[in-house]
Design goal:
385 residues
Length: 385
């Protein structure tokens, strides 16, 4: 999504802080996706493994939040909310299509679509954009309030199928498992990683945030710091009070506090991740130098980066596997991101981070090229990617 500067800035100019923070979480995201192909577990009691996974928890929340923010900002350059709704509908359906075809192929390198498909983060973002298209005619503050209500009242959605008559429940139940877990069975062959609630709430809250980011510089910074730090403090207080007494051999309190539910994302998980991200916006606004420029470049082309990085990481994993075992072992990755390999073949953390650094460095150059292409042809198909 394109974004532009606050009042007094030339229309069409980007808000660099959004690009920098989004670029940072995109770089972090690659850590987790290299981990997928490394065979290492998603967290665990060992601090090094735990934090390797934990730092990547910021990715999906920031993507969803800034997708909503970008929608608000982009809508101000269009003829009206109708044009924005049509754009969101088209881009959302394109993302769903990409998730079920191209991205699924990049993850697995096989064409067995009948037995395995993935409702992943791009699926979630796509359908959330489709739903957001129905909210953009509302005032931004109201869309934001609705988003917050969805986040904090999300468990209500688990009871919706139970309110239906048995026949209707049988019809709606499989579909509803993609909205929010309710104890039913989803359609076979599609693995659900991200349900739509509470993520549509995060995107709607991001739409409301867009109005704040257009305020005067000083007020914008105060509001972002206030919202971000308040959310973080709320997480620390509620999260600490809700911790169960530690059993014998339990991880340290800090790890238990940070180990919040992601699937589906609990309110505490979202407070933990979105609070610091929003608080970082004023800091990112002041960032200068080559590192900030690199992050901003990634942040300007999030979908292009996503499409490239899955492919690059998968190829890198096959190369590493061949170098270590003499075979590429495609069967280990046939249902990625749900992978399996023998424990002795799992990578070390230093190898994981080495592959991650090489892949991210290589991705910078095509991303810089594509960002330039988007600047030259802003009204082309590139705005959908």
């Amino acid at each position: 999504m394109s974004s532009f500067g606050p009042p007094g800035v030339k229309p069409g100019a980007r808000i660099s802080s959004i690009d920098i923070v989004r670029g940072a979480v995109m770089v972090l995201m690659a850590i987790d996706h290299v981990r997928v192909y490394s065979g290492l577990p998603a967290g665990g009691p060992a601090p090094a493994i735990f934090f390797t996974r934990w730092v990547t928890h910021f990715c999906a929340p920031v993507f969803a939040l800034f997708a909503g923010t970008g929608a608000y900002l982009y809508g101000r350059k269009l003829a009206g909310t109708g044009a924005l709704a049509r754009f969101l509908l088209g881009r959302g359906l394109l993302l769903v299509l990409l998730e079920m075809t191209v991205i699924r192929l990049e993850w697995t390198f096989n064409f067995d679509y009948r037995n395995f498909a993935l409702a992943g983060v791009i699926w979630m973002l796509g359908w959330s954009m489709v739903l957001l298209a129905g909210l953009v005619r509302l005032p931004a503050w109201l869309a934001g309030v609705i988003g917050l209500a969805i986040i904090f009242l999300q468990k209500v959605f688990a009871y919706v199928p139970r309110l239906l008559l048995p026949h209707a429940r049988d019809l709606v139940g499989p579909f509803w498992e993609y909205v929010y877990p309710s104890g039913g069975k989803a359609w076979p062959g599609i693995a659900i990683l991200y349900v739509l609630v509470p993520w549509i709430g995060v995107m709607a809250a991001g739409y409301g945030l867009g109005a704040i980011l257009l305020r005067e510089r000083g007020e914008r910074r105060r509001l972002c710091l206030g919202i971000g730090l308040s959310a973080t403090a709320l997480f620390l207080v509620i999260g600490s009070l809700s911790l169960a007494p530690a059993a014998a051999g339990a991880p340290p309190m800090l790890l238990r506090l940070l180990n919040q539910q992601k699937y589906p994302a609990s309110p505490l998980f979202l407070l933990m991740t979105l609070g610091p991200a929003i608080a970082c916006l004023p800091l990112a606004e002041r960032a200068r130098g080559w590192f900030a420029r690199v992050l901003a470049t990634f942040g300007r082309v999030p979908m292009f980066y996503y499409l490239l990085h899955i492919l690059a990481i998968h190829i890198a994993a096959l190369v590493v596997t061949f170098m270590r075992t003499g075979s590429i072992h495609p069967e280990w990755y046939a249902t990625a991101p749900f992978t399996w390999m023998p424990a002795p073949q799992r990578w070390s953390l230093p190898l994981l981070y080495l592959v991650w650094a090489i892949v991210v460095a290589m991705l910078y150059f095509p991303c810089r090229w594509f960002a330039g292409q988007k600047d030259l042809r802003r009204d082309s198909w590139r705005r959908y990617i």
